[in-house]
Every structure is written in C-alpha cells, then in structure tokens.
Amino acid sequence: MSSRKRALSDVDILPDPKDKDQRLAHKQPRLDSSLSPPLHVSSSLPYPSTSQSASRAIPFQRPLPLISFSYTNDRKLEFSDAAMRYYVSPPLDADLGHGYERWIRRPEERGRLDGLLRAISEVRRRGTGDPVINIVSWRGVMTKILTGPYEDRDGWELNVMAISGTLYFEEFISDARLQEKENLTPHHRMQTYYGYSFESWCTASRPDASSGWGGDVDTNVQWCSVVKTKLGDTRIVIGGEVDCVRDRYDGRNDTMLELKTSMTIRGDRDKARFEKKLLKFYFQSFLLGVPEILVGFRTPNGKLKTTESFKTLEIPRMVRGKENAWDPQICLSWGERFLTWIKSNVESGNAAAPGSVWRVKFTPRVGVELASLSEEERREVEAGEDRIGFLPKWYYTEIQNASSPSAQRSGSAVQPEQSRSSGPSTPINRTLPAGWQI
Ligand code: 0WD
Ligand code: CA
C-alpha cells in the first residue's frame, strides 16, 4: 500500500508541445472559461509589485505540529500514523511508469475542509491545546495565496466564511474546472503518475526496508500533519499532506521530507525554469515546517536520473540574484496584506449579514476581488450536503455551542475561537512559541 498523489510539480512545467502555449501564456494571464461568472464585487486589492522589496519584514512563526492523521485506502480518516511512510533511497534508473495500470486513483473532488476540521475538533477534545485561530486552511491554499505575487498564469478562487473570529478558506472549484481536472489527456495523466510513482520508489512502511518499489499507488491513502503558526499578527492553523519521514517520527516536523519530481536540467533555460519552480516548492514545505525537499530529476519518458536534496530554508538564498529570482519577503508581506484585507472586509460585511459565504477571486497581474455570495451561489457551495455554507453542520454546531455563554461559564475544554488583537499572549507554557494560547 502506498500513498501517492499528483505531482503538481511535474504538471507545472511540461516538456511537451503544450509548453509552447505555456510560454505564450506567460505573456498573458489565462482567460479561464471554467472560472465562475463575474462577481458583484464589494472590495478589491491591487496586484503587488515584485520590483520593489517589501517595505518591512513580516515574521512567520515556526510551525508547531498539533496532530497528524491518516486517510485509509477506503478514504476513512483515522487519528493514527498508519499512512506515514519512511524514506528509502530510490534505485537510479527507476522506471516512473512502473505500476501505472494498477494505479488506484482517487476521483477529483472539491477541496472541502472536513478532514482538517475533524483534526481541530480532536485537538480540542483531547485538551492538548486550544489555539486561538484566526484562519483555518489547507496548506495548498496558503501556498497559492503566498506565491500570488509571482504567479503569472493560473487564477484561483476561494470560498470564505467567518465564524466567531475565525476565517475558513476553501478552494472553490467550479463544476467545469472539476471536469477539466478529471479528464486529463493520457499524456498529462502519465506525467502526473510519475510524481506518485517516485514517492513509491522512495518510501516504505518500515524505516529499515531495502530500496525498491514501495507498493502500488493508491491516491486515497494520505498522511497529513496539522500545524499552528503565525504570519504577522494572524494565527493560522494549516493542514497538509506529508510524503514521508527520515528514520523516525516523534510528533515533530524536523524529520519530515517532501518529495518532488522535475525534468533533468540540460541548460540555462531549464535551470531558470527550475529556479522559478522552487518558489512553490519552498512555500509548500515552509508552511508546514518541512525542512527538506528531495527532488528526483527524470527524463521526459519517466526514467529517474538523479536526486538532489534541498534544505527548505536555504532555497531563497539559492535563487537570489538569478534570472527568475523571487523574494519570499514580498510573498509574506503580500500574504499579510491579503489576509488583513479579507478579515476586515468579511467581518464588517458579516455584521450586516451574519453567516454569509464570500468568494475571493485571484487574477494574475490584476489583483483580488471579494464578493458576498447570493443565496443561489451559496446553495451551489452547499451542493445539497449537510452543511452551512461549506462547513459541515456538525462542526458548525460544535463551535456555536462552544461560543455560547453557558459553555464559557462552565469552563469547558472547548473554548470559543476568538480573534485577538495584536501582541503576543501571555504564554502559560513557556516551552511553546510565543503568540499561542494553550
Ligand atoms: O481534491 C482536491 N481538489 C483538493 C484536495 C484540494 C485541496 C486539498 N485537497 C486535499 C489533499 O488531497 C490532501 O488530502 O487536502 C489535503 C491536504 O492537501 P495539501 O497538502 O494542502 O495539498 P497541496 O499542498 O496542494 O499538495 C500536496 C500533495 C501534492 O503533492 P505535490 O508534491 O504534487 O505537491 O497533495 C496532493 C499532491 O500530490 N494533491 C492531490 N492529490 C490528488 N488530487 C490533489 C488532488 N486534487 N491536490 C493535492
Ligand atoms: Ca510531493
């Protein structure tokens, strides 16, 4: 059994005829017909400049893991590390097409927050920590937000809700976009598979296993880590998938490893493209506190040639001054601006219409728009499921009960999530990073 998934990295830069279109697309943001119709915009935020350095450094707190969980092969979530994998070095010349016909492929779905919300609920139930949370998001969404200043091709949309001072982000994927993702060309699908296959060649269910195929790819199976962190004054809980660990796992993120595949670098142009790609690699791992990224370089038809390990925190220095240079401070500064802008608009809007669902639309090189959804659009988000907006009803009820005055009076372990003003809270446990209330 192997938990393997889409190599977003590989899909980003394709070594095929599509490449030409992609180069063109760099000149022009993609007019994506599968994005939703125009919004009745209530506020907008202009696209940031990347030519000036960030006016001030925005601190990002070292992510502290709260809990981990596994999705089993029948896509059940359990609070165990059953799906966790150990790194083993892959055989060189490994065939990344191996086992393609046996790939058990999880269908594309909406980026619901349910798994992450169950994890947050479990953290509270255990009473091991009750973070004050301003934002709840999957890691992939936070990566898209932070890398926005350098994204010149792909737009995205989010659904946003605010309850008791906490903002929840869900990626909004229209039905048309979902279809597009589901119906990849055979070529594209194979490229996607190379990434999963690399993970199988690199991992095993025991730390002392010998090198070799780690088991057929089943993209239902995933191991996820949930961390708390802070960007500027905004406290964020982020969940994301982790590929494997080196040797051991003791609840910390310092042995975690991210696996990626990329085309072998044959010249300056390839090198520049790879350095641009490193921005996404960097933030993806940075956000969960994953300290190492192992890249498998492959041929166009899926032969593994070499691997190279990158220390996440050293990546920005590697690209500094290069042709496709990027500056993480610009991203963090944009991220802070983006989050505070959403928070202030959504909270003031919610005062007029409590329980609203909001839509945020990012257009490369243009900016971001925010709008409150109509009743009909809101129903589309609920999709006939047992939800309030995109939040599952059980979770909604849980936080409503937690923030009721009687729950507060009884000193229940389940505390309301509150938005706090800036400044570190008084840490009760001094071994924890400042800024988190336990
Ligand atoms: O199905 C969806 N549309 C989404 C699913 C959207 C957003 C999240 N999720 C799920 C993920 O599958 C996972 O269970 O939420 C959980 C956390 O995801 P994440 O860590 O926030 O996702 P991200 O950082 O975008 O990607 C991490 C890995 C990717 O690895 P690479 O090395 O390629 O970046 O998760 C995989 C992907 O392999 N992944 C997916 N696998 C299958 N279907 C998908 C997807 N749609 N999205 C990410
Ligand atoms: Ca990966």
From TrEMBL:
Protein's UniProt keywords contain Nucleus: yes
Enzyme's top EC category: hydrolase
Basic and acidic residues bias spans: 15-24
Cellular compartment(s): Nucleus
UniProt keyword terms in alphabetical order: Hydrolase, Metal-binding, Nuclease, Nucleotide-binding, Nucleus, RNA-binding
Tree of life domain: Eukaryota
EC number: 3.6.1.-
Keyword Hydrolase: yes
Co-factor(s): a divalent metal cation
Record GO terms (molecular function): metal ion binding; mRNA 5'-diphosphatase activity; nuclease activity; nucleotide binding; RNA binding
Biased composition, class Polar residues, residue ranges: 402-429
A Gene Ontology cellular-component term: nucleus
UniProt record, GO biological process: NAD-cap decapping; nuclear-transcribed mRNA catabolic process
RAI1-like domain span: 61-395
Enzymatic reactions: a 5'-end NAD(+)-phospho-ribonucleoside in mRNA + H2O = a 5'-end phospho-ribonucleoside in mRNA + NAD(+) + H(+); a 5'-end (N(7)-methyl 5'-triphosphoguanosine)-ribonucleoside-ribonucleotide in mRNA + H2O = a (N(7)-methyl 5'-triphosphoguanosine)-nucleoside + a 5'-end phospho-ribonucleoside in mRNA + H(+); a 5'-end triphospho-ribonucleoside in mRNA + H2O = a 5'-end phospho-ribonucleoside in mRNA + diphosphate + H(+)
Biased composition (Low complexity): 31-55
Region annotation Disordered: where it falls in the sequence: 1-56, 402-438
Role noted for this protein: Decapping enzyme for NAD-capped RNAs: specifically hydrolyzes the nicotinamide adenine dinucleotide (NAD) cap from a subset of RNAs by removing the entire NAD moiety from the 5'-end of an NAD-capped RNA.
Protein family according to the UniProt entry: Belongs to the DXO/Dom3Z family.
Protein name: Decapping nuclease
Species of the source: Russula ochroleuca
Phylogenetic placement of the source organism: Eukaryota, Fungi, Dikarya, Basidiomycota, Agaricomycotina
